[in-house]
């Protein structure tokens, strides 16, 4: 008569996910039920991109709010997934489509096009992209590297903008 | 004709003997067993007939169901108390939270506030945070997909299927649970299956016979009697305990009855108390047989698949039916699909274009005794019926609401929303503007395009797309 949602998820796995992501036991089981209900094909992955549950949890972990007690402990361990730096890295990867650690003009245009649909012309979008790169680019390679990205966003409250309050 | 049943069982048992004479290899003990089985069956059916079928004809109750329900309620209360004592305080809080609240607390700031805020209109690299956050929020929890799966219970009701969050508590509870399994599968299930069989057979046979009569007031009265009796038998086959409120608002002839949809059982719940003309698609198989025989006795409206696609044809036929004040009220479920009884989704405007008086009805099931929701993507109809017949009971409340008509200057969509609000309010269900069709179909692109348009306005300022003063720079 155990908890049915976690019968497919072993306790050791839950512990591993807990250590990696920082979610609590109950949060992990609830998110697992959600994952299984979204996984219509019942093959352990979501959609064509083949995200498995670990990948799903890793992505969600980026959106956990930064807690004060986490900042101080575990300085010699790996950085938690929801640190400011990792959140920024996640956002950077949203733009960097070919994963070459640089946001090129084309990539920026593609992402902008996704966000505005058909409502803005190519020329206008192009000028927006050019301006953005111009403002961010410091080493003159007409692309935005991760350090340049961080510099542009240094005044932005990343923790607040990229955090979701998970209930227990 | 029910008296014939016990006799026919005995007659049938003679056939094996004849087969023996013709040289088949049935041992003598088989024949003896068959005889005994036939006797048991006839006793069983006679009991069922006198205790259940006969009272159904007159709409009486012998009080057996009430007695059963009282025992059931006491048992479940005891189980709840034991679980609460057994589970530690902290776990109990977690249980309560997980069942009632969601996984996340949504951030309700709008796009305008989050992105535009106090800055001048322009694109910023940080805009992507808003979209990714909203996207992840929707992936983790949205208000629509959770309506297509059964409601989680606050306290376990001793059914294996609802045992999601509850762990082993005590030996006594386990014993009661095992007892429950035995009672449900070995005692209740055969009884209910037998009743359902009687109900369906009598429905088909009864309506066919009534259909042979010439059209007259007597035929209508008889047809109503047959329909009511069979509905009552079928409701008892599910151990249904229904409380009807405000019976004075019951749908009248020439009207349209609309209700929220949770399962195919809804039809039985309503026809248990009144007669309606059904509307629906013609099926094959057993369902088709029932449809064909009932339409002879009473003017139900069954459409072929090809006719269903022609909206004007459907509308025309329904308008004609409603215009005839002697015809029974039609029963329509405007949501178009089964929702899990925690909320009411978009009412399709088609039913509200017919005209006539709308009689809204709110149906709310009590999930503690049995989950009535049909999750058609998870269970087919047979497994669903099996689950229903092995639940404790189906308990629900039905509220008949005062009739509503379309007001001046109100179009069908607004009228539909007004009726939907009234039903949701009465039944204690939440109201959602989303289409129940999202159960199977994807969200329309127009929703995404609207968001894109909003965002575009924010980064280039108000005005037509493309040719703006900013665009002139690039030229």
* Strand residues, percent of chain B: 5-15%
Shape of chain A: globular
Determine the strand fraction of chain A and express it as a percent band: 5-15%
Strand line-up across the major sheet of chain A: 1-2
Low-confidence stretches of chain B: 1-23, 463-475
Tell me roughly what share of residues is in helical segments of chain B.
Answer: 40-55%
Oligomer: heterodimer
Q: Overall mean pLDDT score of chain A?
A: 81
Count of DSSP strands of chain A: 5
Using the CA coordinates, give the radius of gyration of chain B.
28 Å
Radius of gyration of chain A: 19 Å
What does this structure look like?
- The complex is a heterodimer of chains A (168) and B (475).
- Chain A has nine helices and five strands, in the order ααββαααβααβααβ.
- With 168 residues, chain A is mainly alpha-helical.
- In chain A, a hairpin with a 4-residue loop joins strand 1 and strand 2 (51-52).
- In chain A, helix 6 (105-116) packs across helix 7 (122-136).
- The longest helix of chain A has 15 residues, at 122-136.
- The two termini of chain A are 22 Å apart.
- The model of chain A is unreliable at 1-6 (pLDDT under 50).
- Chain B is α/β, with parallel strands linked by helices and 475 residues long.
- Helix content of chain B is 52%, strand content 9%.
- Chain B is built from 17 helices and ten strands.
- In chain B, the strands form two sheets. In chain B, strands 2-9-8-3-6-4-5 form a seven-stranded mixed beta sheet, with helices on both faces. Chain B has a two-stranded parallel ribbon with strand order 7-10.
- In chain B, strand 4 (277-281), helix 11 and strand 5 form a beta-alpha-beta unit.
- The longest helix of chain B is centred in the middle third of the chain and has 41 residues, at 171-211.
- Chain B starts with a helix and ends with a helix.
- Chains A and B meet through helix 2, helix 5, helix 6, helix 7 and strand 5 of A and helix 5, strand 1, helix 7, helix 16 and helix 17 of B.
- Strand 5 of chain A pairs antiparallel with strand 1 (104-105) of chain B.
